[in-house]
Every structure is written in structure tokens, then in C-alpha cells.
């Protein structure tokens, strides 16, 4: 995924769109006041006491977000500027998201897709893509971008860079861990015949990077607090639903009022969600694992190509969002980038349109930012159960694609 002179035109296009996007971005946050107050407090604390001491506040965000806040604080050193310009964090998030769109372009270019430089604009210009950052004021686009770039480097047979971006993804937001199994399989398929020394050489840069990320907190004696931050937010809000229009809206009248520690048949709702996620994801990953391990190749031979791997990623993200409890609406955001890239490769816009439509309905239905007031929507389009059915339809469609993939893999060895 090297940058060449051929990339000059798309780089200029995406840079121009970045500048325009920053100019047009709302200069306020209209959602997530509590998060914003935290970021203001943390930025001021980092400015006064140093990045290395931020975990003394018992913050529950992984380290790299604090590096973002440290940079933001350097640009805006006074408490007044931090308070008034906290919305400028959108620009940092958007910059990384532009990088992910450029990565999509490089994937399309490698596959000789016509108009590879312009097709990613269908992602970038998609309201479901920029809603999460520009309106909702969240930064899920960052760990998503790092994960997509990691997978791209893995499939381009650059395992060292793939692991580096995987480390960045997980250290930005722990949800990046859902991409670990598929990325590990992609890398293992590439390096399994390497010598032990070469494998160590591939692993070493990502290990060093992880140490460097944690080094300030090691030196301040807060390593344990930094490590705990990866999982401290898990279970903090033990409700079946936190705004995601997923399967639980088809089961309960209002899952946002149901504690997910409750359940039936000696299993909590949280456990059922995790079992569904891990079980379905495991089934999706199984053919790739068998291929990597060299098992049953006589009967099944799934190719590690972009279409197949991106399809697996889309399904894993959907399973994570649709079946788990404690899900926010913004946790659907990674689907846009991955399904968009898959749609460009397969020239299949229908599924991408449905994905974008469902995500927008969920984000707006939960936040009502464009609506302008907190009164519940009366139209059917924004009803949680209706949007949940759209997501379920999307899952069925992608599962159908996956079954076609498996059928072709079986035929190839027949």
C-alpha cells in the first residue's frame, strides 16, 4: 500500500474534502455532554500534570485517546481554549477517517476497479459515515480506520504494518479486539512457513510500539490502571440496550430499562448475547481457520482475498452490534467503512444502501439531533423494532453471501 505519483489526484481530492469538512463541521457538540465534560477535564489535567498521570483520575479510556487529548491540549494550552474549542477534536478524528478512505482507494486500485479514486466518495459522502463524528461527536471512526488499515496491510502481505495498526486500534478503543481473530488468521496464513527468527522480526515492532504506548504510565507507576482502562467500561451500564436498535428490541418492549444481569434458564441476557456473538463469529471464522491450519483442504478451500475477508468482517461487526447487550447506536459505525469497501469491490450497492439507511435511522432515532428535540419519533421509519428488522434483513443477506462463498469453496475442490 505504497504511495506513488498515481495517488496524487486522490490525495488532493481527499485533502480538499478534509479541509471543506473541517470548515463545515458544526462548532458545537449537541450530544454526549458527559463525554465532553470528561474530555475537557482530562485535557486540562494532562496539561497541568502530564499525560503520564491521567490514569490517577481513574479514567476508563485506553491510552491512545489520551494522546489525542494531549495533542489537543498542546494546540489549545489554556483552560478557556480547551472548553471553547473542544469540538476541534472532530478534526483529529476526521483526519484519521480520511486515511481510512484513502486505504479503501488503495484496495480498489490494487483490484483495478474503475474510478478507484472516486468510488470511496460514496463512503465519505455518506451521512451514516460522518454522523457519528460530526453530529454525534464520537470517535469510533478512529479504531475502525486502524482496524481496516491493519486488515488491508495483512492482505497485502505486510504483516509487520498490519500488527502495528492492530495495536493502534485496540489501544484506541478496546472494541478493536473483535478484529483480532480475523487479522491473526490473515497474518498466520502469510507467515506460517516463515522461520522462527523471521516471525520474531515481524512481531517485534508491534511489541515495541505497545511498550512505547504504555511507557509513560509504566514510568509513573500507573501501568495497572492503564491496563484496567481497557475493560473498566465493560459492564459499567448493565442494561440490555443503550440505544442500539438490535435484536433486543424484538424481544422487549423497552430493553433500555432491563438489567442485563437478569435472564432465564440460569443464564443472563448478557451471557446470551455473548454466546450468540462468539458462536456466530466462530462459525464465520471456522473455514478461514481450517484453511490456515491446512485441515480439510480436500473438501473446503476458502481464499484469503479482500472480498472474502471483508465479508467476514462485516458479519462479525453486525453480530457484535446486533446480539450483545449494552450496545450504543454508535457501535454500528464500523459497518459503514467495511461494507462500503466490500460494496465497491463487488459492485453491490444495494446492501451498502441498506446498511447506511439502518445506521442513519438508528443514530438519528437515538439522538434526534437533526430532529431538533427530544420527543420520540412517531413515524415508523425511526421505530426501534422496525430498524432492528432492517438490520436483521442485512444480516440475512450477508449470511446468504457467505453461504454462496462456502458453496463455491466446496465446488472448487469437488
From TrEMBL:
Keyword Transmembrane recorded: yes
Transmembrane feature ranges: 12-32, 91-109, 138-156, 163-187, 199-219, 272-290, 302-323, 335-360, 380-400
Keyword Glycoprotein appears in the UniProt entry: no
Keywords: Membrane, Transmembrane, Transmembrane helix
Full protein name: DUF2029 domain-containing protein
